[in-house]
Amino acid sequence: MALRTLGIETSCDETAVAVLEADEQGCRLLGEALATRPQEHAELGGIVPELTVRQHLELLPKLLEEAKSRSGEGKIDGVGATAGPGLAPALLVGLSFGKAFAWAQKTTFHAINHLEGHLYSPFVSQGKWPKYPHVALIVSGGHTLLVEATGPDKRKILGTTRDDAAGEAFDKLARMVGLGYPGGAALEKESRGGVRGRVSLPRPMKGAESCDFSFSGLKNAARLLLEKNPRLAVEGGARSDFCAEVQAAITESLVDRSAKALDQTGIRTFTVSGGVSANQGVLEALKKMAGQRGCDFQCATGGWNTDNASMIAAVVARRVLDGQSSDWEADADPRWSVAR
Ligand code: KG4
Ligand code: ZN
Questions:
Q1: Sign (positive/negative) of CA torsion 273, 278, 283, 286?
Q2: Within this chain, do residues 268 and 147 fall inside the same structural domain, yes or no?
Q3: Ligand 1 probe mutation, 116, 170, 253, 304, most atoms within 8 A of CB
Q4: Index of the ligand 1 atom closest to the CA of residue 280
Q5: What pLDDT, on the 0 to 100 scale, is given for residue 39?
Q6: Same domain assignment for residues 144 and 282
Q7: Relative to the alpha carbon of 84, which ligand is closest?
Q8: Average pLDDT over residues 172-180
Q9: Most exposed: 62, 112, 253, 333, by fewest CB within 10 Å?
Q10: Residue 307 sits in the same domain as residue 289
Q11: Helix axes 239-265 and 166-176, enclosed angle (nearest 10)
Q12: Is 311 in the same domain as 209?
């Protein structure tokens, strides 16, 4: 008999509520309501905590009703909200709202790690439960991580960024050439008209012993290059060559670090999730690298690769199926590690 869970996501600027149906065989999204206000953030050049918190407070009741009406009638068998990592005041809004709703529904409440949601998304976006062991690359605006997951509660961080996240690097470099915020997708689009190698940028951490990432050197090299050649930032000319080189540099770095993690662990299932996995060039290059190693490659599809509440509802469903008890005492943990 399938059960229904409700997930809430408010760790950053997305506000989302999703209802999912699940059993031991897998899960299926019944309805999700998601809102983001990139325009306001774009005008201010980044995430503004006060604005984000107000947005979550205003939107959650409305999105809850929308998600419930999209998913149709049915008893909710467990509620969960992201408790970390993320922006503390934003996390608190979702956590408090989730606890209150779960209490009113007389059901269990689960505090969910946002990154565990990202680990689930490549599998659950295809209706399946995670397969172990696997190596996961999580690449978003806030995180760049390589995780070795050998079981549902056995996870080790193989590599992380020493400075900026990959999405942050895309966004900062895009902003340097006037492509707005968040500029990752715009930079990828612009790169298609350019030729890589016409200008030269470093490949961060390529060949390094550890599986760590670093993007601040690339950012500084790009700044110096643009100071010397201001025409590279001008639309319609060499800007596309600059973007093609940035795209190549970040892609090669992600591929090299992921290959290192796969070779080091010998694991043959590789997954990728997070906003940067919407980048077709990055995705194709990672898929090719995994294929060359005979790895099974799984990526989050559709709306599941960016921040969403479906992945949170999926982790909740797994908790309920496994008979785990409620986390009524759980607090928000802005730095909650995914390692266990
Ligand atoms: O996972 P996500 O929606 O939110 C978090 O940051 O957690 O990821 C957003 C990030 C932004 O940095 C955005 O620029 C980047 O993902 N992104 C992309 C592309 N689409 C989104 N970066 C490169 N190429 C893209 N096509
Ligand atoms: Zn995320």
A1: negative
A2: yes
A3: 170
A4: 26
A5: 67
A6: yes
A7: 2
A8: 96
A9: 62
A10: no
A11: 170
A12: no
What's the CATH code of the domain at 317?
Answer: 3.30.420.40
- 12, 52 contact by CB (below 8 A): yes
Q: Taking 90 as the threshold, does the pLDDT of residue 44 lie above it?
A: no
Distance from residue 304's CA to the centre of ligand 1 (Å): 12
Going from the Cα of 209 to the center of ligand 2, the distance in angstroms, rounded, reads 27
Residues 145 and 213 in one domain: yes
The total number of structural domains in the chain stands at 2
Domain region containing 202 = 134-299
Domain membership of residue 333 (yes or no) is no
Beta 134-139 vs 269-273: how paired, if at all?
Answer: parallel
Q: Is residue 295 part of a domain?
A: yes
Q: Rounded CA gap, 59 and 76, in Å? A: 20
Rounded to 5 degrees, what are φ and ψ at 7?
-115, 145
Q: How many CB atoms lie within 10 A of CB 263?
A: 11
120 and 166 together in one domain: no
**DSSP letter, residue 28:** E
305 C-beta closer than 6 A to ligand 1: no
Burial of 228 (0-12, 13-18, 19+ CB in 10 A): exposed
**Among 75, 73, 74, 93, which residue's Cα sits nearest to residue 83?**
93
- What is the chain's length? 340
pLDDT of residue 218: 98
User: Is residue 340 in some structural domain?
Assistant: no
Q: Is 47 in the pocket of ligand 1 (CB under 6 A)?
A: no
pLDDT at 336: 98
Express each pLDDT in 117-126 by its tens digit.
999 999 999 9
Q: Is the CB of 171 under 6 A from ligand 1?
A: yes
pLDDT digits (tens, 9 = 90+) for 220-269: 999 999 999 999 999 887 999 999 999 999 999 999 999 999 999 999 99
**Within a domain: 339:** no
| pLDDT > 90? residue 40 | no
> Is the same domain home to 140 and 266?
yes
pTM of the model: 0.96
Residue 38: what pLDDT? 65
Query: Which string of DSSP letters, residue by residue, matches 216-240?
Result: HHHHHHHHHHHHH-GGGGSTTTTHH
User: Are residue 70 and residue 162 in the same domain, yes or no?
Assistant: no
